[in-house]
Amino acid sequence: MTDLALEGVSYRYRQGATLALDGIDLHIRAGERVAVVGQNGSGKTTLVRHLNGLLRPTLGRVLHDGRDVARRTVAQLARTVGLAFQDPDRQIFAGSVRREVEFGPRNLGISGGELHRVVDEALAEVGFAGEASTNPYDLGASRRKLLALASVQSMGTPVLILDEPTTGQDMRGVEIVKLLIDRAHAAGRTVIAISHDMEFVAASFDRVVVLRLGRVILDGSPASAFDEGSWEALRSTYLEPPLPAIIGSRLGLGATPTDDELLAAL
Ligand SMILES: Nc1ncnc2c1ncn2[C@@H]1O[C@H](COP(=O)(O)OP(=O)(O)OP(=O)(O)O)[C@@H](O)[C@H]1O
Ligand SMILES: [Mg+2]
Protein backbone atom coordinates (compact mmCIF):
# COMPACT_ATOMS: atom_id res chain seq x y z
CA MET A 1 0.00 0.00 0.00
CA THR A 2 1.39 3.34 -0.98
CA ASP A 3 0.14 6.86 -0.39
CA LEU A 4 1.30 9.29 -3.04
CA ALA A 5 1.69 13.02 -2.67
CA LEU A 6 2.82 15.95 -4.74
CA GLU A 7 3.69 19.00 -2.67
CA GLY A 8 3.97 22.30 -4.50
CA VAL A 9 5.21 20.58 -7.63
CA SER A 10 6.12 22.78 -10.58
CA TYR A 11 7.82 21.53 -13.70
CA ARG A 12 9.46 23.29 -16.64
CA TYR A 13 10.71 21.26 -19.62
CA ARG A 14 13.28 23.88 -20.59
CA GLN A 15 14.65 27.10 -19.22
CA GLY A 16 12.41 29.92 -20.44
CA ALA A 17 9.48 27.63 -21.31
CA THR A 18 6.17 28.12 -19.51
CA LEU A 19 5.46 25.85 -16.55
CA ALA A 20 3.95 22.51 -17.58
CA LEU A 21 2.97 22.02 -13.92
CA ASP A 22 2.36 25.04 -11.76
CA GLY A 23 2.25 24.39 -8.02
CA ILE A 24 0.45 21.05 -7.85
CA ASP A 25 -0.66 19.84 -4.42
CA LEU A 26 -2.22 16.40 -4.62
CA HIS A 27 -2.58 13.54 -2.18
CA ILE A 28 -3.68 10.14 -3.49
CA ARG A 29 -4.49 7.55 -0.87
CA ALA A 30 -3.78 3.85 -1.32
CA GLY A 31 -6.61 2.08 -3.14
CA GLU A 32 -8.17 5.16 -4.74
CA ARG A 33 -9.28 5.21 -8.39
CA VAL A 34 -8.33 8.61 -9.73
CA ALA A 35 -9.01 9.97 -13.21
CA VAL A 36 -6.84 12.86 -14.40
CA VAL A 37 -8.53 14.94 -17.08
CA GLY A 38 -8.04 18.25 -18.90
CA GLN A 39 -7.42 19.71 -22.31
CA ASN A 40 -4.46 18.74 -24.50
CA GLY A 41 -1.26 20.11 -23.05
CA SER A 42 -2.78 20.78 -19.59
CA GLY A 43 -0.03 18.71 -17.92
CA LYS A 44 -1.64 15.30 -17.35
CA THR A 45 1.23 13.19 -18.68
CA THR A 46 3.78 15.46 -17.03
CA LEU A 47 1.99 15.01 -13.69
CA VAL A 48 1.84 11.21 -13.72
CA ARG A 49 5.46 10.92 -14.83
CA HIS A 50 6.44 12.55 -11.55
CA LEU A 51 4.87 9.68 -9.63
CA ASN A 52 7.38 7.09 -10.87
CA GLY A 53 10.40 9.37 -11.12
CA LEU A 54 10.58 9.61 -14.93
CA LEU A 55 10.39 13.36 -14.34
CA ARG A 56 11.70 15.17 -11.25
CA PRO A 57 10.10 18.39 -10.00
CA THR A 58 11.70 21.70 -10.89
CA LEU A 59 10.19 22.89 -7.59
CA GLY A 60 8.43 20.97 -4.83
CA ARG A 61 8.50 17.35 -3.69
CA VAL A 62 7.05 13.96 -4.56
CA LEU A 63 6.39 11.67 -1.60
CA HIS A 64 5.63 7.97 -1.34
CA ASP A 65 4.23 7.08 2.08
CA GLY A 66 5.38 10.45 3.35
CA ARG A 67 8.97 10.03 2.18
CA ASP A 68 10.60 12.21 -0.48
CA VAL A 69 11.52 10.03 -3.49
CA ALA A 70 14.15 12.43 -4.88
CA ARG A 71 17.01 10.00 -4.16
CA ARG A 72 15.24 6.89 -5.37
CA THR A 73 15.94 5.67 -8.92
CA VAL A 74 13.29 5.01 -11.56
CA ALA A 75 14.12 1.30 -11.26
CA GLN A 76 13.44 1.40 -7.51
CA LEU A 77 10.22 3.35 -7.96
CA ALA A 78 9.07 0.90 -10.66
CA ARG A 79 8.53 -1.66 -7.90
CA THR A 80 5.79 0.57 -6.53
CA VAL A 81 4.41 2.40 -9.56
CA GLY A 82 3.70 0.79 -12.94
CA LEU A 83 3.07 3.27 -15.75
CA ALA A 84 1.57 2.37 -19.13
CA PHE A 85 2.67 5.00 -21.65
CA GLN A 86 0.33 7.16 -23.70
CA ASP A 87 2.10 5.93 -26.85
CA PRO A 88 2.57 2.12 -26.65
CA ASP A 89 5.23 2.23 -29.34
CA ARG A 90 7.49 4.05 -26.90
CA GLN A 91 7.05 1.21 -24.45
CA ILE A 92 6.96 -2.00 -26.52
CA PHE A 93 10.35 -3.40 -27.51
CA ALA A 94 10.22 -7.22 -27.41
CA GLY A 95 9.84 -9.59 -30.36
CA SER A 96 6.88 -11.50 -28.96
CA VAL A 97 3.80 -10.78 -26.91
CA ARG A 98 4.97 -13.15 -24.15
CA ARG A 99 8.44 -11.66 -23.92
CA GLU A 100 6.97 -8.18 -23.78
CA VAL A 101 4.70 -9.00 -20.85
CA GLU A 102 7.40 -11.08 -19.12
CA PHE A 103 9.89 -8.26 -18.94
CA GLY A 104 8.40 -6.35 -16.00
CA PRO A 105 7.66 -9.24 -13.63
CA ARG A 106 11.01 -10.87 -14.49
CA ASN A 107 12.75 -7.66 -13.43
CA LEU A 108 10.88 -7.86 -10.14
CA GLY A 109 12.47 -11.28 -9.59
CA ILE A 110 9.55 -13.49 -10.59
CA SER A 111 10.61 -16.61 -12.52
CA GLY A 112 9.70 -20.15 -13.60
CA GLY A 113 6.14 -21.39 -13.29
CA GLU A 114 5.05 -18.32 -11.34
CA LEU A 115 6.26 -16.06 -14.17
CA HIS A 116 4.40 -18.17 -16.72
CA ARG A 117 1.21 -17.99 -14.66
CA VAL A 118 1.39 -14.22 -14.11
CA VAL A 119 1.96 -13.61 -17.82
CA ASP A 120 -0.82 -15.98 -18.93
CA GLU A 121 -3.22 -14.27 -16.54
CA ALA A 122 -2.32 -10.78 -17.82
CA LEU A 123 -2.67 -11.94 -21.44
CA ALA A 124 -6.05 -13.56 -20.82
CA GLU A 125 -7.24 -10.39 -19.13
CA VAL A 126 -6.76 -8.35 -22.31
CA GLY A 127 -8.01 -11.08 -24.65
CA PHE A 128 -4.58 -12.23 -25.84
CA ALA A 129 -4.70 -15.88 -24.78
CA GLY A 130 -3.25 -17.90 -27.69
CA GLU A 131 -1.24 -14.95 -29.00
CA ALA A 132 1.81 -15.33 -26.79
CA SER A 133 4.15 -15.84 -29.75
CA THR A 134 2.73 -13.07 -31.95
CA ASN A 135 5.10 -10.24 -32.84
CA PRO A 136 3.70 -7.05 -31.21
CA TYR A 137 4.21 -5.17 -34.47
CA ASP A 138 1.78 -7.51 -36.22
CA LEU A 139 -0.95 -6.26 -33.88
CA GLY A 140 -3.02 -3.19 -34.75
CA ALA A 141 -2.49 0.04 -32.81
CA SER A 142 -5.40 -0.49 -30.42
CA ARG A 143 -4.24 -4.01 -29.54
CA ARG A 144 -0.65 -2.81 -29.05
CA LYS A 145 -2.12 -0.41 -26.51
CA LEU A 146 -3.82 -3.31 -24.69
CA LEU A 147 -0.54 -5.24 -24.77
CA ALA A 148 1.21 -2.27 -23.16
CA LEU A 149 -1.46 -2.23 -20.44
CA ALA A 150 -1.03 -5.98 -19.87
CA SER A 151 2.74 -5.62 -19.45
CA VAL A 152 2.30 -3.04 -16.72
CA GLN A 153 -0.64 -4.82 -15.11
CA SER A 154 1.39 -8.04 -14.87
CA MET A 155 3.90 -6.39 -12.52
CA GLY A 156 1.28 -6.25 -9.78
CA THR A 157 2.64 -2.95 -8.44
CA PRO A 158 0.65 -1.29 -5.63
CA VAL A 159 0.05 1.66 -7.97
CA LEU A 160 -1.07 1.30 -11.58
CA ILE A 161 -1.01 4.35 -13.86
CA LEU A 162 -2.62 4.23 -17.30
CA ASP A 163 -2.02 7.16 -19.67
CA GLU A 164 -5.10 7.32 -21.94
CA PRO A 165 -5.91 3.59 -21.83
CA THR A 166 -9.15 3.85 -23.84
CA THR A 167 -7.91 6.06 -26.66
CA GLY A 168 -8.46 4.24 -29.96
CA GLN A 169 -10.40 1.37 -28.32
CA ASP A 170 -13.79 0.20 -29.55
CA MET A 171 -16.52 -0.76 -27.05
CA ARG A 172 -14.99 -4.17 -26.42
CA GLY A 173 -11.59 -2.61 -25.81
CA VAL A 174 -13.10 -0.12 -23.36
CA GLU A 175 -14.81 -3.00 -21.52
CA ILE A 176 -11.45 -4.81 -21.26
CA VAL A 177 -9.86 -1.69 -19.78
CA LYS A 178 -12.75 -1.27 -17.31
CA LEU A 179 -12.41 -4.89 -16.17
CA LEU A 180 -8.67 -4.52 -15.76
CA ILE A 181 -9.27 -1.47 -13.55
CA ASP A 182 -11.97 -3.30 -11.54
CA ARG A 183 -9.64 -6.23 -10.86
CA ALA A 184 -6.74 -4.00 -9.88
CA HIS A 185 -9.05 -2.07 -7.55
CA ALA A 186 -10.47 -5.28 -6.04
CA ALA A 187 -6.88 -6.36 -5.34
CA GLY A 188 -6.37 -3.16 -3.34
CA ARG A 189 -4.17 -1.43 -5.91
CA THR A 190 -4.34 2.29 -6.57
CA VAL A 191 -5.41 3.07 -10.14
CA ILE A 192 -4.67 6.41 -11.76
CA ALA A 193 -5.74 6.97 -15.36
CA ILE A 194 -5.63 9.86 -17.77
CA SER A 195 -8.64 10.07 -20.05
CA HIS A 196 -10.60 12.27 -22.41
CA ASP A 197 -13.64 9.98 -22.19
CA MET A 198 -15.92 11.42 -19.51
CA GLU A 199 -18.38 8.52 -19.55
CA PHE A 200 -15.51 6.10 -18.88
CA VAL A 201 -14.34 8.43 -16.09
CA ALA A 202 -17.81 8.55 -14.53
CA ALA A 203 -18.13 4.76 -14.73
CA SER A 204 -14.77 3.58 -13.40
CA PHE A 205 -13.36 6.18 -10.98
CA ASP A 206 -14.04 7.50 -7.46
CA ARG A 207 -12.27 10.78 -7.96
CA VAL A 208 -11.71 13.21 -10.82
CA VAL A 209 -8.77 15.63 -10.90
CA VAL A 210 -9.22 18.34 -13.54
CA LEU A 211 -6.16 20.16 -14.87
CA ARG A 212 -5.91 23.41 -16.77
CA LEU A 213 -2.58 25.01 -17.73
CA GLY A 214 -0.67 22.93 -15.20
CA ARG A 215 -2.99 23.64 -12.28
CA VAL A 216 -5.67 21.60 -10.53
CA ILE A 217 -8.95 23.44 -11.06
CA LEU A 218 -11.33 20.77 -9.73
CA ASP A 219 -10.84 17.71 -7.53
CA GLY A 220 -13.71 15.61 -6.28
CA SER A 221 -16.07 12.70 -6.82
CA PRO A 222 -17.57 12.22 -10.30
CA ALA A 223 -20.88 13.40 -8.79
CA SER A 224 -19.33 16.73 -7.81
CA ALA A 225 -16.98 17.12 -10.80
CA PHE A 226 -19.83 16.55 -13.26
CA ASP A 227 -22.40 18.54 -11.28
CA GLU A 228 -23.89 21.51 -13.10
CA GLY A 229 -21.95 23.86 -10.82
CA SER A 230 -18.70 22.46 -12.30
CA TRP A 231 -19.57 22.67 -15.99
CA GLU A 232 -18.09 26.12 -16.46
CA ALA A 233 -14.77 24.96 -15.00
CA LEU A 234 -14.85 21.79 -17.13
CA ARG A 235 -15.56 23.78 -20.27
CA SER A 236 -12.71 26.17 -19.45
CA THR A 237 -10.36 23.20 -20.08
CA TYR A 238 -12.35 22.02 -23.13
CA LEU A 239 -14.19 19.16 -21.43
CA GLU A 240 -17.86 18.45 -21.87
CA PRO A 241 -19.64 16.74 -18.93
CA PRO A 242 -20.83 13.21 -19.79
CA LEU A 243 -24.23 13.12 -21.50
CA PRO A 244 -25.92 11.25 -18.59
CA ALA A 245 -24.78 14.09 -16.28
CA ILE A 246 -26.45 16.68 -18.51
CA ILE A 247 -29.67 14.68 -18.83
CA GLY A 248 -29.58 13.69 -15.15
CA SER A 249 -29.30 17.34 -14.10
CA ARG A 250 -32.22 18.34 -16.36
CA LEU A 251 -34.34 15.57 -14.84
CA GLY A 252 -33.28 16.33 -11.27
CA LEU A 253 -31.41 13.00 -10.92
CA GLY A 254 -27.99 14.50 -10.20
CA ALA A 255 -24.76 14.20 -12.18
CA THR A 256 -24.25 10.43 -12.00
CA PRO A 257 -27.62 8.81 -12.71
CA THR A 258 -27.71 5.08 -13.42
CA ASP A 259 -29.14 3.85 -16.74
CA ASP A 260 -32.16 2.48 -14.84
CA GLU A 261 -32.83 5.85 -13.21
CA LEU A 262 -32.63 7.59 -16.59
CA LEU A 263 -34.96 5.09 -18.24
CA ALA A 264 -37.44 5.27 -15.36
CA ALA A 265 -37.54 9.08 -15.68
CA LEU A 266 -38.36 9.02 -19.40
N1 LIG B 1 9.12 16.58 -24.00
C1 LIG B 1 8.64 17.83 -23.93
N2 LIG B 1 9.42 18.91 -24.17
C2 LIG B 1 8.94 20.16 -24.09
N3 LIG B 1 7.67 20.48 -23.75
C3 LIG B 1 6.85 19.45 -23.48
C4 LIG B 1 7.28 18.08 -23.56
N4 LIG B 1 6.23 17.29 -23.24
C5 LIG B 1 5.20 18.12 -22.97
N5 LIG B 1 5.56 19.41 -23.12
C6 LIG B 1 4.69 20.59 -22.89
O1 LIG B 1 4.26 20.57 -21.52
C7 LIG B 1 2.88 20.88 -21.43
C8 LIG B 1 2.13 19.73 -20.78
O2 LIG B 1 2.20 18.61 -21.64
P1 LIG B 1 1.63 17.18 -21.27
O3 LIG B 1 2.14 16.24 -22.29
O4 LIG B 1 1.91 16.88 -19.85
O5 LIG B 1 0.06 17.44 -21.44
P2 LIG B 1 -1.16 16.41 -21.52
O6 LIG B 1 -2.21 17.00 -20.64
O7 LIG B 1 -0.69 15.04 -21.25
O8 LIG B 1 -1.63 16.56 -23.04
P3 LIG B 1 -2.29 15.48 -24.06
O9 LIG B 1 -3.76 15.39 -23.70
O10 LIG B 1 -2.09 16.11 -25.40
O11 LIG B 1 -1.56 14.19 -23.91
C9 LIG B 1 2.41 21.23 -22.85
O12 LIG B 1 2.51 22.60 -23.02
C10 LIG B 1 3.42 20.51 -23.72
O13 LIG B 1 3.57 21.16 -24.95
MG1 LIG C 1 -0.64 13.32 -22.33
**Would you list the SSEs in sequence order as H and E?**
EEEHEEHEHHHEHEHEEHHHH
* CATH overall fold name: Rossmann fold
**DSSP helix fraction:** 25-40%
Rg over alpha carbons = 19 Å
The biggest sheet, with number of strands, parallel, antiparallel or mixed sense and barrel status, is: 6 strands, mixed
Question: How many beta strands in the DSSP annotation?
Answer: 10
Class, according to the CATH hierarchy?
A: Alpha Beta
Whole-Å distance between the termini? 44 Å
Mean pLDDT: 95
Task: Describe it.
The chain has 266 residues and is an alpha/beta fold. The chain has a single domain (31-43, 72-265), classed as P-loop containing nucleotide triphosphate hydrolases (Rossmann fold), CATH 3.40.50.300. The protein is built from 11 helices and 10 strands. The protein has a 6-stranded mixed beta sheet with strand order 6-7-8-3-9-10, with helices on both faces. Strands 2-1-4-5 form a 4-stranded antiparallel beta sheet, covered by helices on one side. Helix 5 packs parallel to helix 6 (171-186). The termini are far apart. The model has no long low-confidence stretch (mean pLDDT 95). The chain binds adenosine-5'-triphosphate (ATP) and magnesium ion.
